[in-house]
Amino acid sequence: MNELLLIVSIAGSRVALPAASVESVVELEALIPVPRAPDHLAGLSALRSRVLTVIDCQRSLELGVTNLTAEGIHEAAVVELDGHHYALTVDAVEDVVEALSEPTPIRAAMGPGWERVSLGMVETEEGPLLLVDIAAVIAGPGAEVRAA
Amino acid sequence: MDVVRSNVERIGGIVEVDSTPGKGTRMTLRVPLTLTIIPALTVSIGKQHFAIPRSAIEEIVRANGSSVTLERVGGAGVATIRGRRVPEVALADILGLPSEVADEERTLIVLRPAGGDVYALAVDRIHDHEELVVKPAAPAVMATGLYAGTTLADDGSPILLFDPAGLAQVGGVRLETLERGGRVAEVTPAANSNDVPVLLFRGLDGARRALRLGVVDRIEEVEADAIRPSAGQLRVQLGEAILPLAGIGTGTKLEGKIRVFRLSDGQHDLGYAFREVIDLMTIDREVIPAEVPGAISGVTLIGGEPAELIDAHWLFAEHLGALARPRTELVCRLPEGDAWMQNMLRPIVEAAGYLVIGESDELAADVTIVSHGNPVEEGQSGRVLRLATDPDAADGEESIYRYDRAGLLLALKAASAGAGRR
Fold this sequence. Notes:
The complex is a heterodimer of chains A (about 150) and B (about 425).
Chain A: E1 4-10, E2 13-18, E3 22-27, E4 41-47, E5 50-55, H1 57-60, E6 75-81, E7 84-89, E8 92-98, H2 112-117, E9 118-124, E10 127-132, H3 134-139, H4 142-147
Parallel strand pairs in A: 2-10, 5-7
Antiparallel strand pairs in A: 1-2, 1-8, 3-6, 4-5, 6-7, 9-10
Chain B: H1 2-10, E1 14-20, E2 24-30, E3 37-45, E4 48-53, E5 57-62, E6 68-73, E7 76-81, E8 84-90, H2 91-95, E9 107-111, E10 119-123, E11 125-133, H3 139-142, E12 147-152, E13 158-162, H4 164-170, H5 175-180, E14 196-202, E15 208-212, E16 216-223, E17 227-230, E18 233-238, E19 241-246, E20 257-264, E21 269-274, E22 276-283, E23 288-289, E24 296-302, E25 305-310, H6 312-319, E26 330-333, H7 339-351, E27 354-357, E28 367-371, E29 383-388, E30 399-401, H8 405-421
Parallel strand pairs in B: 4-13, 8-10, 15-25, 19-21, 26-27, 26-28, 28-29, 29-30
Antiparallel strand pairs in B: 1-2, 3-4, 3-11, 5-9, 6-7, 7-8, 9-10, 12-13, 14-15, 14-22, 16-20, 17-18, 18-19, 20-21, 23-24, 24-25
């Protein structure tokens, strides 16, 4: 069976997340900022007695800022990484589709933010989509600098 | 060890390594009894709440309290809390959060991070004590070095738990200054200092009296029969020691248990009997001095009512007069084998303030006393007094009749005066 993908839109682009690593999709409630934490770490939120670390995907991709203080519904995909739960803010959650191919490298030039989180391009029924590396999104833009 | 440390600290514990070259290494792992529940104090900056582990909190003082002053030394904050200088950092500055509370309005939390010295953290507001189930935060949050974990507060919202050592580090409080910091500032209270702490108590006669706290060593309770007049004054037995006792008027009946202040001037102790302690106060008014010197040095208003101030100096001078006289090391040599000298003369010589030694002791003597006709070894004998058993043989100068008490004392005194001039 082919891998299932969750199609979300981040900063206006439709991308795919591996559905197996997404636990749930939630609407974020009150957000507690974490002073001195990296910029892309929007804060903490609670979900069923668990603390979620909220990652602002737009900031992580250096594509802008998600306004989480504004009124309205803020959707986020909850993922688990190394025992910690994270909520990735997305513009919208669209659909779950089946991957029709293995990820293939994208040879065209991508935006700098996307380049870092890219796992490649997958074919779906809805056309080619960028498969996003969740760990890279969580690590944020500072990660490469630290690793270097 | 790094893995052990991060895991132990994750549950609020401490790993300490103390290593002495050539001797060995001691590793201490301190782990909280309940692994995940940490008693914490919640504080806030602006609108955001944080938690501080209670185990690190030494005390909490108001920045505008009378015993606290805040100073800036080269831009760094220094708080003086009851004479102790501690580095001070504002939580709002560490976190880079806006705060509308002025420096003086803040509350200082004196923190002692594990293994470090104290520093004061200024927070906007203190809220509540909570038992928090702390969970490790995401690596990116932990990487700030400020936090020990996250938890959910009573209202279900997430709250961050601070790591006191990390706060100090990020706040720029240097660890080496932490070791040596917290030194006691030499604050000599001005003559009219407003803050002289006194112990307000009721004497056995019912009068309100006050005693400077500094001279009170401790309070003891004794049976009435432990107090008895002996050797010219009232004395109280406190444990192994017999101390002169003040505070008891003539004709006062002593029954049951008597409470006694044990006063100390650093060398000598003195008892002061009283009925009950009223409160710990400070002298905030003028002291009206007493007309004549005595046990009471003056009267002042304490807590809105007059109280007599005890003159501790007078008490010590009066009750310890002889005992507290400065001792010059006067040495008197007495023949060891002479029973009369040892049994009859020695107490008199000792009472005159001499240290009595025998012939075989090496110490240089100021006075040597021998029986008339006995030889005296040359050197180290000081002044020689010969005692005659026959009054006629005494010439009053070098030899004295041995029951001429006045003459003996005079000679001893003359010797001590001579020794004092040396």
